[in-house]
Hints:
elongated
Amino acid sequence: IPADRLQKLFDNNTIFKELTINNGFISDNIKREKLSSENMGAVSPTITDKYKFLTTVYGVSDGHDDKARGRYIGFSHSRVSDSSNLFSLKEYISWTNYLSKKLKLATIKPAIFERYGSKADTPNVIEPLNILIDIEESLREKIYDVKNSSVLLEKLIFDIENWKFNIDVNEKSYEIEVEFDDSKHNYKLKKVGNWHLYIIIDDKKEDLITYLNKLQNLQILTKDCKSVYYKGDFYEIGIKEDDNRLLDILVEYKTKKGIKKLNEKGKFYKEKKDRLKITKPKWDYNSLFYLVSNYARNLDFKNKGSQEISHIIRGLDYLICTDLQSEIADFIGLDEQNKSVYFIHCKASTKKLSASAFQDVCGQIIKNLDYVNPLSSRKPKDINNWDKDWDVDSYCVKTNRNIVNTRRTSPEKIWKKIKRISRDQDSNVYVWALLGNMFSMQEYLKEKQSGVNPKPEIIQIDYILMSTWAAVQNSNAKFKIYFNEIS
C-alpha cells in the first residue's frame, strides 16, 4: 500500500509520539534517526526536514472501537498495528474493515507529514547518483563468496557512474549495474560478469542480488538530487517555494498611529554636545523598550498580535530590564500564576528584510540559551545590577530596571523563582525576538512565492530562524517572533 494512502490512517486529532526519519542524502553522516516526544506536533521543524522522509510513525488515534489506541505504521512494508494484545477473530475482522474504510476516505493527511519529503510519482529524472544498500548489521556477517569465505561489507554507500558501481571487498571487485523497470516503477540490481555473493537467511543460502531486489532494501538518490527512492517508493525532497513553516512562530503586531518607525531604545545621542540637558524617566515612545516597559501602550489593540503582547505583559508578576553589557536578555518576565517565564530580546533595523539583523538577535538568543534551559544551574554574572537604575547618557534616560516588582523581591530571589517555576512540569519558558522595522510579512511571502530562486536574503533568514527555533526548543523552551506591521 503506498505511503500516502497509509497516512490516511491518522488524522489531525492524532497525537504523534515517535517518528523514524531517513536522511535523503546518502553519505557517512546520520543515516536514520528516531525521535520521541509526548507530542511530536509541538516539536519545532528544522530547515533540513524537507530533505528527509518518514519510514515509521507511532501515534495515539481513535481505533475501530472509538477508543484511543496507539497505532504503528511502517511505510516500507505497509505494516499496521494497533495493539500487541490478543483479539478474537470477530474483533480482527471488525478492525480490518475499519482500516479498509479509512484507506478509501478522501481525508487530508495530518500536518506532521508535510514537514518531510513527500511520497511522489516516478520523477522525470531517474538516473541514480548514489546508492545505500540497506542490510541489517547482524546480516552483514552472513555474506559469503563462492568459496564460502566470509565477506564483510564495511561500506554500504556507493557512488554510481553511468548506472554502475563496484563493491570492493577482500581484494576483489564486484561490478553491479542499476536498472529501472518502467512497468513496475522500481530499481533492480544486476550483476556484471560471472560472480556470486550469497547471504544466509533462516539458515538458507540466497543470492545476495536476488535478495536485495526482492526486499528492495535500496535507497537511491537521483542525479538531480530532487528525489529519493526507498524500498519501492519515490519521495520528493527539497524545500519548495511555498514552504511556510515559520508562520507558526511569526506574530505580527501593529503600533498606534503617529509612530512611523520603531527603534530599539530611543534616540541615540552619539556626541556629548547634542545630548539633552534633562534626563528622561522613560524610554522614547517609539522604542521597543518603551513597548515592553509600559505595557504595550504604544500598540494598536485592534490588532490580534498587539492584544497578545499586551495581555502577556500585563499578567507578569515580575518584569526586569536586564539590558547590560553582557545581558542574557533585554527583559525577563515571570508570571507565577500561569507558571510562565519570558526571555525577551529586542532588535530594530531600518531594512524590511535584513538577514544580518536577524543574525544579531538570533546570535544573542543562542549564546544565552544555557540560562534559558530549566536544567541549567548557571546564574547571570550581573544579577546584582538588576535592582539598579538603567542609566545610559547616550540615550538621556535614567529609569528603574524593576518595572514590575511590587514586593521589592531581590534579584537573587527572583532568579530562584524563575528556575523553580521553569523546572515545573506544567510550566512554559518562552524566548521572544521582539522586532522593529526589520521584517515585512508582505515582502517575505512575495519573495517566497516568486519561484524556486528567491533572494539569498530570504534563504538566509529561513535558515537563521529555523536553526534558532530548533536550538530554543532543544533548550526546553518555546520560540516566538513578534514583528510590527510595515506598510
